[in-house]
Amino acid sequence: MNDERQPLNPTKSEFLQALHDRVLIGDGAMGTQLQAIDLDLDADFHGLEGCNEILNITRPDILADIHRRYFEAGADAVETNTFGCNLPNFADYGIEDRIEEIAHAGAQMARSVADDMGPGREGMKRFVLGSLGPGTKLPTLGHAPFSDLRDAYTEAARGLVRGGADAILIETAQDLLQVKAAVHGVQQAFDDCGTTLPIMCHVTVETTGTMLLGSEIGAALTALERLGIDVIGMNCATGPDEMNEHLRYLSAHAPMPVSVMPNAGLPELGANGAVYPLTPDELAAASVHFVRDYGLSMVGGCCGTTPEHITAVRDAVIGSPDSQQDALESPAVTRPAHHHDFDNNVSSLYSTVPLTQDTGITMIGERTNSNGSKAFRTAMLEGDWNKCLDIAKAQTRDGAHMIDLCVDYVGRDGTQDMAELASRLATNSTLPIMLDSTEPDVIRVGLEHLGGRCAVNSVNFEDGDGPGSRYDRIMTLVKKHGAAVVALTIDEEGQARTAEKKVEIAERLIADITTRWGLRESDIIVDCLTFPISTGQVETRRDGIETINAIQEITSRHPDIHATLGLSNISFGLNPAARQVLNSVFLNECIEAGLDTAIAHSSKIIPMNRIDDDQRDGALDMVYDRRGTEGRGGTADEDYDPLQTFMELFEGVSAADAKDARAEALQALPLFKRLAQRIIDGEKNGLEADLDLARDEKDPLEIINQDLLAGMKVVGDLFGSGQMQLPFVLQSAETMKAAVSHLEQFMEATDDSASKGKIILATVKGDVHDIGKNLVDIILSNNGYDVVNLGIKQPISNILHAASEHQADVIGMSGLLVKSTVVMKDNLLEMNSAGAANYPVLLGGAALTRTYVENDLDELYQGDVHYARDAFEGLNLMDQIMSMKRGSQRELTEEQIAAATRAQKKKEERKARHERSRKIAAKRKAESTPAVIPDRSDVATDTPIATPPFWGTRIVKGLPVRDYLTCLDERALFMGQWGLRGTRGGDGPSYDELVETEGRPRLRAWINDLKAEGILNHSAVVYGYFPAVSEGNTVHILPVPDEAEEPDPAAQPVTSFEFPRQQRGRFLCIADFIRSRDEAQRTGHTDVFPLQLVTMGQPIADKANVLFKDNHYREYLELHGIGVQLTEALAEYWHSRVRAELAFADGTHAGDDDGTEDRAFFDLKYRGARYSFGYGSCPDLESRRALVDLLCPERIGVELSEELQLHPEQSTDAFVLYHPEAKYFNV
């Protein structure tokens, strides 16, 4: 019988019972108090500078006084002065042999103070928490062996237990693997001492919003909750504001009490060094919020907090001693009920992943398996660990949710291979790991290198379940490390073949794992196993159907159990194309039966609707063993054998990658055609070798002009005809850039005859958007033009200076904002005045229209001005302009002349239509009766007013990307940003096919890489709720009230927003959706005006800029698009949070009206709307200044430029209206 420790029942621990019955008050900082005392380095510290723990031996009187003052201040529990009693810390001082001694002294002294003071409030015992800190070594990064850290924690915990601690507090945790070592060490100490105490664990989340190594709070909870801890919480690194979102998560998901001990704010530099700015009352207010809104069980303080802070927290949360007349009186703050079961997740170091997906099944990547993947096995045997990591990362792109890691290989020391790979995957993969081995020691090594919650593959009864059996040894590890476990339907007689036997063994496994080992059914993944049905052996023909029936029976009996399969077994022996189809069909049948995970190569799974009917029917006949007349829906002959028929269907059919076929076709082309085709295909492999061969026959310049540019012309034609998508165009441009760069070394340095012309490109003043301009740069520069790219926010003086300095032929100006169209107009007038109208001008940008350029701007500019819808229209215009300018030097082809003639004719027709429309509109206006503009529209005034959860602002950091990734608009990203569009004419892939083959796989890979690099850790939100009233067309923002007070409807505004009113239709105005001041004064209730500002931070833009600079054009386009759409997704997600937080008097919320279907957010199926200044109904961008002043976004690294643009660029702000009639409109 295994006696592994379970989380304590509250009735077995006085401390846990107290946490259950009431909110406990913790103490404050020990170090802050010690710094205020004049201590001698030699006499008090014995020369160990900074080693506060030695004071347990040398100056227990000082420490006892600090403990006493915290108890007197209102603390129910104090922490021992043993934070540094760990191996890395004490080894630095050379006193690692004194860990247990010093820990014992610290606990004994604190216990003595608590006992001497007698019972605390309500007769409750005064508690002593044995503190254990992290030290300076991070085992995930290989700084120290797991076992060494664990054993030292055992020594420290033994001292704390013997010294009289009531609980062990593992705090300031920075590395999940370090926490695991600490928990294991503490549990071993309990076994050594013959007693058990509660274990508390506090993680530390940095200002980035994650733990030091990048762990999200969800990953921390998933990893730690199964280790046998009793309380989880947070301490240190930040103040309470930065902890808010993480505590919210713990409150909503933790199956145990939650506690918090924040710093007194973020440190600020004072005259005498760093100071913590949070006052006692401010810490108390935050503690009240945490207890009242999140149901926390213990609140206290960390760095910078003092007895005065703790008194304020005590008074605010449970009431001052004067108010506590007797034990029956209610506390000052009511704590809501807190009941949650354990989650159903596994986790990597970085993030948590549910074992059951909301849609589809959990795919477990099989390619990092030394027995199943030749590429992985070869890399592992050669010690090519980077190649192994590349194979692991590729599975993320393919859509895997977990990675199956198997290093077993005959004659190898699996523990060494596992150590090498698990340690690397710990930080390089964002996916959880399934450790796959038959050797307990290999599993142990893997678990001791991975801080996240793993799954262990696997256990079975092959050699029984007695002491020392493989099953017993692996289950001991599973339990100790809190892992999920794969249970195979194998017993002492071998692998089960029939459904009945599979179910019988599964029931035995489930019963033993849940009773003897204490796991939950949701921790178990049953693998019903299957032999190949493709060998022709009669005895294996029914293996598929027996497995399906077993899955169905097991999952119906045990709904919480997970079911999995190693999918590739079913088709062993068939050719690759046949295997893909059979695997896919079998998987689909198993899913229908209840399978929710599969160990498979996700990219090799084919959707049912893409499998030929005959192939699918043949596969189904094989799976269900329908031979003879049972086959083909009952229409087959008596001698019908589905296996033979299935194999015949795939004779000569290859599953080879289409890329291989293209490579063969490319190599067969003549050299110069091959070079052009390389540009068209974007194929760099072998490019330099072909260029070197070409130089034997042509000059480099001739190669560029005759062959490479010919390829780029085809690319332009294909894009223009809709047969090539933008990402592939950019791959071609990358290849062109690489080819030219290779040839340049063989060209004369002064030879500029290759240039077709020179253009100055710039984003106009006040505009920070440069993706369109940079795409023009890419296309022009790789089609023979010299491009001088000035960047963003360029005044016309800089543009003209550059044009003169570089002797430019053309000027190109870009801008995304509506305001930029006005700037372009002013720039053209300035060019007239400066005598610079000799420059032809290309204009482009999202806010521009062809009509505006060809009519309004063409009339005012004294030179030639052209509208370029995209980069390739810009290229065509440049070809026309430069041919006209250079005459016979660059003659246009007949095709180009015809195209230019058609374009000019269309332009003249558009101008004529525009002039007719203008005259008609002028006539109608002259004949119309002027509209009577009402003071107010017909928007309802009797809708309920919401109450926000707080007044003022809050900042939020560390949001897991998975939370807002659900709000990412894939169509806007894939089609709008990346340019993935279905091929015109139906000859190529459709949009949906491109999404499956290019869009989602590349997005998954990007998110994985960005998470691993920590770039997504910089996302942040600042939002707030402000009292507001309206008067006419104005919304007044009123002063934020003090805590527990209501806003004053008659107060003078702190700022006001003036909004325009429609001059037609319903005559709407934003102010109509806000309660009027008169009504607010009559009812005594103001309206609420939510504001929000979100950012993805600067690093995502920095990475994109590096990609552009390094000529990685496709990646640049993709990352820029991801940044834009993730910002929008975060804004939409936070808008939904705002709706969820706005409460009505009847207990409902504004978010209750949200649609439930997948695209509800994108179709605006929710109450109210989110508005940004500069658009539609609120076009005055100047109003953004007031919004920014109210939110103070510099706290999350966002600033407003003089041109009213947010920096970093991937930031967006808005105000929110929750009135049910509030939707988007234009004025």
UniProtKB/TrEMBL annotation:
CC per GO annotation: cytosol
Looking at the record, the residues that make up the Hcy-binding domain are 12-317
* Location of the AdoMet activation domain: 922-1227
- Which EC main class describes this enzyme? transferase
Which spans does this entry mark as compositional bias, Basic residues? 913-923
PROSITE patterns in alphabetical order: ADOMET_ACTIVATION, B12_BINDING, B12_BINDING_NTER, HCY, PTERIN_BINDING
Q: Which UniProt keywords apply?
A: Amino-acid biosynthesis, Cobalamin, Cobalt, Metal-binding, Methionine biosynthesis, Methyltransferase, Repeat, S-adenosyl-L-methionine, Transferase, Zinc
Give the pathway listed in the UniProt entry for this protein.
Answer: Amino-acid biosynthesis; L-methionine biosynthesis via de novo pathway; L-methionine from L-homocysteine (MetH route): step 1/1
| Reaction(s) catalysed by this chain's protein | (6S)-5-methyl-5,6,7,8-tetrahydrofolate + L-homocysteine = (6S)-5,6,7,8-tetrahydrofolate + L-methionine
What Enzyme Commission number does this protein have?
2.1.1.13
Alphabetized PANTHER family for the sequence: METHIONINE SYNTHASE (PTHR45833)
Query: What's noted about domains in the record?
Result: Modular enzyme with four functionally distinct domains. The isolated Hcy-binding domain catalyzes methyl transfer from free methylcobalamin to homocysteine. The Hcy-binding domain in association with the pterin-binding domain catalyzes the methylation of cob(I)alamin by methyltetrahydrofolate and the methylation of homocysteine. The B12-binding domain binds the cofactor. The AdoMet activation domain binds S-adenosyl-L-methionine. Under aerobic conditions cob(I)alamin can be converted to inactive cob(II)alamin.
- Please name the NCBIfam families in this protein's record: metH
Family recorded in the similarity comment: Belongs to the vitamin-B12 dependent methionine synthase family.
What is the purpose of this protein?
Answer: Catalyzes the transfer of a methyl group from methyl-cobalamin to homocysteine, yielding enzyme-bound cob(I)alamin and methionine. Subsequently, remethylates the cofactor using methyltetrahydrofolate.
Name of the protein in question: Methionine synthase
